[in-house]
């Protein structure tokens, strides 16, 4: 009877240690899931910021290209008007220079 009691205590002790190990593993899995959820939220926020920045940079670059093309066209027209007496800008140049 004492041997049965000792064997039962040993089994209960082994069962308790296994329950504790399962509990620790469960707690570590919950912590891992929490960290993964946080990383997922950070990634979604960072991706949204990156996409917004990409759109802003693309729009700003497009505007700069349009402005540069417009300035180039104006410069070509103005330089041509310096050498062409029939252009409308030529009269403006001559009026400003003579005044």
Automatic annotation (TrEMBL):
<feature type="transmembrane region" description="Helical">
    <location>
        <begin position="62"/>
        <end position="83"/>
    </location>
</feature>
<keyword id="KW-0812">Transmembrane</keyword>
<keyword id="KW-0472">Membrane</keyword>
<comment type="similarity">
    <text>Belongs to the EMP24/GP25L family.</text>
</comment>
<keyword id="KW-0217">Developmental protein</keyword>
<dbReference type="InterPro" id="IPR015720">
    <property type="entry name" value="Emp24-like"/>
</dbReference>
<protein>
    <submittedName>
        <fullName>Transmembrane emp24 domain-containing protein 5</fullName>
    </submittedName>
</protein>
<keyword id="KW-1133">Transmembrane helix</keyword>
<feature type="domain" description="GOLD">
    <location>
        <begin position="14"/>
        <end position="83"/>
    </location>
</feature>
<dbReference type="GO" id="GO:0016020">
    <property type="term" value="C:membrane"/>
</dbReference>
<dbReference type="InterPro" id="IPR009038">
    <property type="entry name" value="GOLD_dom"/>
</dbReference>
<keyword id="KW-0732">Signal</keyword>
<dbReference type="Pfam" id="PF01105">
    <property type="entry name" value="EMP24_GP25L"/>
</dbReference>
């Amino acid at each position: 009877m004492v041997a049965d009691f000792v064997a039962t205590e040993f089994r209960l002790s082994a069962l308790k240690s296994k329950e504790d190990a399962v509990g620790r593993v469960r707690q570590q899995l919950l912590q891992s899931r929490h960290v993964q959820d946080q990383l997922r939220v950070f990634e979604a926020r960072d991706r949204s910021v990156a996409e917004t920045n990409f759109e802003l940079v693309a729009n700003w670059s497009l505007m700069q290209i349009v402005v540069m093309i417009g300035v180039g066209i104006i410069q070509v027209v103005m330089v041509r008007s310096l050498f062409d007496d029939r252009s409308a800008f030529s009269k403006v140049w001559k009026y400003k220079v003579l005044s």
